[in-house]
Design a protein that fits this description.
The protein is an alpha+beta fold. It contains 15 helices and 44 strands. 22% of the residues lie in helices and 30% in strands. A hairpin with a 2-residue loop joins strand 40 and strand 41. Helix 6 runs antiparallel to helix 7. The longest helix has 22 residues.
Length: 846
């Protein structure tokens, strides 16, 4: 019997309209097949506009990221693709999928030029609108708008909004890479006169960035690049491109900033028309998106309207989130001002704004007297659960909503257990990822920061790749990392780097765990998606970082000098000194050098560079030897004698002999017990400690650490009502007071990196080969739970593991997608090797 028709035909990792790769790789899922089915061949049918179908036959078992078989796409060219596969017989053809190239040659394909208002639209002036008309002589067959900006933009055609993305063009390392977007606007055009109007905002280009109130770090002028291409029924193409003929006028957005919020005057703005200047800008920076844009992903109703002790009206949305408030105001007289202030928490019943630092996080509106007005901003976002609203006489729950925004990443991972607090912890991890994946992976979404800290995503990337289809999103960010990397290999602490230009850190930044994002994140993407190309693309960056580490370590292979974040936010660190961890910084740094050198060696092997593979394997071995000699005693004690020190040494193989390793494992478990099963790790150790404990036979200790509810612990915030992951273990103290540290966030995913252990070990669903082509099913049951399950949408389809304990028996259900296999390892039983399908197992509970 032939397999089912392939589904979910995809191109690389991103959108299918306006792709930047002329030879996009193909992936598909085979949803069902008979037992024993193995793909032996596949055929791809490619149909270009006006051409006959071409069929390409390939003998191969591959179905993920296979090469484009046809001639490369030209700029603007579209193709329709179908796939079928062969095992014992040919499957039906898949449904057709369409892919269309963007403008692949920036210098030849763009006739548009960047334009900027001549006299209006300055840094402290209302947001400008740029406009022009185009005459369309006849029926519109197809129309595309290609656009980007210095700043943020929102376009309208004939008064109707273009697209559904938010905060475009997003944030990249603008001096190196500037994304443009492609929109299908066919349905927005009509024969005759059409008007294109584009509103510009400050965004990351000209707004505030960083806590030192830096502004206009990329330039002090907003600008637009837009090219509208309209094909009519007679076959002609008509182009409206930004040039000196456009005009500008002010909008009712009086002020806008990502940190401070937006102020809008709904009354008619001044009737001012301004000319535009054509700017001499390099179009070679233009690049197509690799992943999905920021969009509205959910709208939440008000959970409760509260009157605070001071008499303020506050809306509780029941969930800490990222986005803005959508407010309907009835019968507001002209000139009345409505103000919305945002905060993540209440402190003693009032809006807790101290964690915002200098960010005002306030939206305000001057009403125009309409009977009803819907108020929401365009060019800002906030991290909040609570919104204080003034200027509205009677606020009813149906009149206020929270609009949730973030990069529109498809959800791919789920976890559930018999422990409700653990389930809420996992949900908090999901919400923190959603809130901090706003075009780049940020640290927090509410204060005067919201930056792409490398250390945070380094520890969180395995969790991110399980929960969401993050490949295009993180791949784009890695291109910025490589672009921002210094010539000596140093990796900025944040990417895009806006702290270095402000002089806030050393000119050649190199900190362990933070810079290691250059090696770890590409490897995680390869491990979780099977995309070897990301390793090839990032290999020079990976090598450069390890070479920098090795140079700083010197001949003795111990990295002991220079600035380090160390085990950032160790719970023992004072509130005002978050780097004062129990694990010495040089232990953290040297351990990361060993790990990254090993990753580069493995990458070089995959890429066929034997000389590099040998060099970095030797370097990793030398560092491991130096680490053990300098930092591990004969009785297995690791310098610092702290949870993170042992977790790194054990999990990364830095203790070579079995006797010392066993003693180190015993000491780690002893430390956790001595600390009352409370967490003793910061950013570095948190993703590792549970793995290290379970690897040395102390899974019971790992579970007690996981399920602890006293502070510091993963579940303490849950008992305090947290709906996202906190930056500090005690961001809020038991008495409801916000942590006195200057740096306190309630939405910060780094400490949620333990979710990767929940997926791989508690539930037992892990990749055993890149892209989950092989699964390792090895659940770690414990009496604390009666059940646990995880499901992941792998590149091959859904894989899942679910187990239950009852009547002395462990019952396990395993789902393996077509194209993958699994090794099932259960307590007290020999390994089982299974192919696609659903499999059940029962074993006695030890």
């Amino acid at each position: 019997m032939s397999p089912a028709a392939p589904t979910c035909l995809r191109f690389d990792h991103g959108p299918t309209l306006g792709v930047g790769n002329p030879t996009p790789r193909l992936s598909w899922i085979v949803p069902a097949a008979e037992p024993g089915y193995v793909q032996r061949a596949y055929e791809v049918e490619v149909t270009r506009a006006g051409g006959a179908p071409e069929t390409f036959h390939t003998e191969s078992p591959d179905q993920v990221l296979v090469r484009w078989p046809a001639a490369p796409l030209a700029s603007r060219e579209a193709a329709t693709v179908r796939v079928r596969v062969n095992g014992a017989g040919w499957s039906p053809w898949s449904a057709p999928a369409r892919v269309e190239a963007g403008l692949l040659d920036p210098h030849r394909d763009w006739t548009a030029r960047f334009i900027s208002p001549r006299t209006i639209g300055g840094p402290d002036a209302p947001a400008p609108i740029l406009r022009q008309t185009i005459e369309v002589p006849g029926e519109v067959v197809q129309a595309r708008l290609y656009a980007t900006a210095h700043g943020l933009y929102r376009a309208e055609l004939n008064g109707r909004r273009v697209g559904d993305d938010e905060l475009s063009p997003g944030w990249t390392s603008y001096q190196h890479r500037l994304r443009y977007q492609t929109y299908d606007v066919t349905d927005l055009l009509r024969p005759g006169t059409n008007e294109l109007a584009v509103l510009l905002g400050n965004g990351w280009h000209r707004g505030r960035l960083g806590w030192e109130r830096g502004r206009a770090l990329y330039g002090d002028r907003l600008a637009l690049l837009a090219q509208l291409e309209v094909t009519t029924a007679d076959g002609r193409t008509h182009v409206l491109a930004t040039d000196g003929s456009w005009s500008a006028r002010p909008s009712g957005i009086v002020a806008d900033d990502l940190y401070d919020g937006q102020r809008t005057d709904l009354r008619p703005p001044a009737d001012t028309t301004d000319a535009v200047d054509v700017l001499d800008e390099d179009l070679g920076r233009l690049t197509a998106p690799l992943g999905p844009p920021v969009r509205v992903t959910e709208v939440l109703p008000a959970a409760e309207i509260i009157v605070t002790p001071s008499g303020k009206t506050v809306v509780d949305f029941g969930q800490n989130l990222v986005g803005w408030v959508r407010l309907t105001v009835h019968n507001g007289e002209s000139g009345r001002e409505v103000t919305v202030r945002h905060a993540e928490v209440l402190e003693h019943g009032e809006l807790g704004v101290r964690p915002l630092r200098s960010a005002r996080a306030t939206d305000s509106y001057v009403l125009d007297g309409r009977a009803a007005a819907i108020l929401e901003p365009v060019f800002t976002f906030h991290g909040f659960r609570y919104a204080e609203i003034t200027g509205v006489d009677s606020l009813a729950p149906p009149d206020v909503q929270a609009v949730v925004v973030g990069s529109d990443l498809p959800r791919t991972g789920w976890f559930e257990s018999s422990h409700e607090l653990l389930n809420r912890l996992h949900e908090n991890v999901v919400w923190s990822a959603r809130g901090n994946f706003v075009d780049i992976p940020t640290d927090c979404p509410q204060r005067d920061e919201r930056l792409g800290w490398t250390g945070d995503i380094q520890v969180f990337s395995p969790t991110a790749c399980f929960l969401f289809d993050s490949a295009g999103f993180l791949g784009s960010w890695l291109e910025d990392l490589a672009a921002e990397q210094h010539q000596d290999g140093s990796v900025p602490f944040v990417v895009p780097d806006v702290l270095g230009p402000q002089g806030l850190f050393p000119p050649a930044p190199a900190a362990a765990a933070w810079g290691d994002a250059a090696t770890v994140v590409p490897w995680v993407l390869y491990e979780r998606t099977g995309d070897r190309a990301v390793l090839a693309k990032q290999f020079s960056s990976m090598r450069a970082w390890v070479d920098r580490q090795a140079a700083l370590a010197g001949p003795d292979r111990l990295w002991t000098d220079g600035f380090q974040f160390g085990d950032w936010l160790d719970p023992a660190a004072p509130p005002d000194r978050p780097a004062d961890a129990r694990t010495p910084a040089e232990v953290v740094a040297t351990a990361h050098l060993a790990r990254s050198a090993d990753l580069v060696a493995r990458t070089a092997t995959l890429l066929g560079d034997a000389a590099a593979a040998n060099h970095y394997a030797d370097l990793a071995a030398e560092v491991r030897t130096a680490f053990a000699a300098a930092y591990v005693t004969a009785d297995g004690r690791v310098r610092g004698d702290a949870q993170t020190a042992y977790a790194m040494a054990l999990h990364w193989g830095l203790i070579p002999d079995g006797a010392r390793r066993a003693l180190a494992g015993q000491r780690l478990a002893e430390l956790v017990r001595q600390e009352g099963f409370r967490i003793g790790t910061g950013f570095v150790g948190t993703p590792l400690v549970a793995d290290a404990l379970s690897a040395v036979g102390a899974a019971d200790v790992a579970y007690r650490l996981l399920l602890q509810t006293e502070c510091p612990s993963w579940l303490y915030p849950v008992t305090m009502g947290a709906t996202t992951i906190w930056e500090r273990w005690d961001s809020m103290l038991p008495d409801g007071t916000i942590n006195p540290g200057e740096m306190t966030s309630f939405n910060h995913y780094a400490l949620g990196a333990v979710a990767d252990w929940l997926h791989r070990r508690v539930a037992g669903l892990a990749p055993a080969a890149p892209g989950y082509r092989e699964l390792m099913v090895e659940p770690l049951p414990d009496p604390a739970l009666t059940s646990a399950s995880a499901r992941h949408r792998t590149p091959y389809g859904d894989a899942s593991v679910a187990w239950k304990r009852a009547d002395g028996v462990l019952r396990v259900r395993v789902e393996v997608p077509v194209g993958a296999t699994a090794t099932v390892r259960l307590p007290g039983s020999p390994d089982a090797h299974v192919s696609h399908g659903t499999h059940t197992f029962e074993v006695p509970i030890p």
